[in-house]
Amino acid sequence: MLAASVFAADFAALGQSARLALNAGASLLHVDIMDGHFVPNLSMGPLVCAALRRVCPDTFLDVHLMVTDPKEFIPAFVKAGANSISFHVEAVKNPKELAAYARDMGVSVGLASNPDTQVSAIEPFLNDFDLHLVMSVHPGFSGQGFIEKSLVKTKWIRERVGARARVEMDGGVEPSNGSRCVAAGADVLVSASALFGQSNIEQAAKALLDSFSATSRVD
Ligand code: DX5
Ligand code: ZN
After folding, report:
1. Which residues, 6+ apart, have CB-to-CB distance to 191 below 8 Å?
2. Cα 169 to averaged position of ligand 2 atoms, centre (Å)
3. What is the chain's alpha carbon radius of gyration, rounded to the nearest angstrom?
4. H or E, element range at 2
5. 0.70 exceeded by the pTM?
6. Domains and CATH numbers, the chain
7. Site residues for ligand 1, CB cut-off 6 Å
8. In angstroms, what is the span from residue 26 Cα to ligand 2's centroid?
9. How far is residue 21's CA from residue 78's CA, in Å, rounded to a whole number?
10. Which of 81, 108, 161, 202 fits as disulfide partner to 165, beta carbons 3.0 to 4.6 Å?
11. Which residues in the chain show pLDDT less than 50?
């Protein structure tokens, strides 16, 4: 599935851009939340998420919290219409407890990890999440280059969770690496700049989706 990250969309025409990406084949919207602390950038808050919910009432909203204190913000994003909320393993002392806290509010939960975070940090929580989010860039900005070693982490996670959880890759996904992400075991691929950064969003979505169904292998 293609997850359209609105972080690179035209914020002055957010609703139209989101609809365009969905009509072009994106299955869900990925909403990047940055607090200027966990990552050196600011993005958007619950009001923007709620606005997306209004304009796309039936769309799956995949909220990615890149914040130092996810617990503080989870209720606001549930209220704003999130379907899934991911937070970072690097930010949280007790990921299992926070997953239960979010799930009790009616959302599915994801555990995100940065490119340099070892698999040993997520291993204890493999079965506590609906989604594992593998960052393939250092979080904070769109338009960065894909970090190849993240494919190894994706493969490692998929081999352990089987079909019990989704594995999402986020950052630097483009037509040139899409098939390798899928071969490594990813089933949700996030794209911001390779989609919204292109002059023709429809063509860009098609190029990404074509790459996801091309054959490849990861050794
Ligand atoms: C990065 C965000 C990503 C970002 C991806 O911190 O988590 O979701 O929007 O952007 P691209 O696809 O341009 O790398
Ligand atoms: Zn993201």
Report:
1. 2, 3, 4, 5, 173, 174, 208
2. 9
3. 16
4. strand 2-5
5. yes
6. 2-212 (3.20.20.70)
7. 5, 7-8, 30, 32, 64, 137, 139-140, 142-144, 170-173, 190-194
8. 15
9. 23
10. 161
11. none
